[in-house]
Amino acid sequence: AFRRVTDINLLIVPLIGIVVGLSLFSDAFLTTSNFQNLLRLAAFFIVLGVGQTFVITSGNIDLSIGSMLALVMALVSLELVAPGLPPVLIVLGAVALGALFGTINGLIVTKLKIPALLATLGGLIAYRGAVQQYMYGGQYAGFPDWIVAIGRGSVGIVPISVIIAVAAVVLGILLFRYTRFGRYAIAIGSNEEAARRGGIKVDRWKIAIFAFQGAMVGVAALMLMGRMNAAHPNMGAMNELHVIAGVVLGGTLLFGGFGTMFGTVLAMILIAVLENGLMLAGAGFYWQQIFLGILIIVAVAIQMLRVRQRGRY
């Protein structure tokens, strides 16, 4: 219990301090439109983070989600939206495509016995190459109103993307606490060999975990399509690092065996607030990348310190 309270305070206290500081620094920070944009950005990464939390908890990692995202967006745009298919089929198609690519990642990791880091690094390159070849430098723009509403619309003052993110987080929490999916992810990440000897079909569950990550990519693809009202082969680049930084900063152990959905949510909001603050301060995109790289190093350093001190918790 002490460990969880400490982890939460490491995120909540800085988050409150940064929000107060930014509200004093910039009059634009507390405006409704800025807060909605900030929450839409955080919601997008939270959905991706829900899947990545399970992957990292299981002792794996998925570096391919940014490239996978772009490929799903391209296929959905040109093969499902352009022909005018019904919205239900488009949504199901996006989720199914993401789950398919996630399953491919899982099969490569389990059947070819390639470490997830290298397997998904290959996926990052292959999926990006596939979408570049498929769209050949072009883009698709002008989605139906209902897709635009997913990324830009609101119910009252609450962005629709936030509602989707809340639903994804609730699903993630339920899976973690009340199903074998969550328990086995923890068991596999804690000690894969012990899990195998305990009767858990490790390979099958690893594939399922990667497929679930892919399904979340499919949902996030619809959110990004709506927010940008376009699909381009370069979209999603570097998103995987943003997601991994948030998951690790939130308290999920990079080495597996422990994960926290609440921590992932708080960390994604914290990163969104910091990036929003950098933007309001006039810092460009490259400064945001520098910040994100430093944040990943800090998050891993904090985790290493926690691992060394675990006996005190």
Secondary-structure blueprint of this entry?
Elements: H1 2-25, H2 32-57, H3 65-81, H4 87-111, H5 116-135, E1 140-141, H6 145-152, E2 154-155, E3 158-159, H7 160-178, H8 180-190, H9 192-197, H10 202-228, E4 230-231, H11 239-249, H12 261-280, H13 285-308
Antiparallel strand pairs: 1-4, 2-3
Helix pairs in contact: 1-12, 2-7, 2-8, 2-10, 2-11, 2-12, 3-4, 3-5, 3-10, 4-5, 4-10, 6-10, 7-8, 8-10, 11-12, 11-13, 12-13
Could you walk me through the main structural features you see in this protein, from its secondary elements to its overall organization?
With 313 residues, the chain is mainly alpha-helical. The protein has 13 helices and 4 strands. The protein has helices spanning 2-25, 32-57, 65-81, 87-111, 116-135, 145-152, 160-178, 180-190, 192-197, 202-228, 239-249, 261-280, 285-308, and strands at 140-141, 154-155, 158-159, 230-231. A two-stranded antiparallel sheet has the order 1-4. Strand 2 (154-155) and strand 3 (158-159) form a beta hairpin. The model is unreliable at 1-6 (pLDDT under 50).
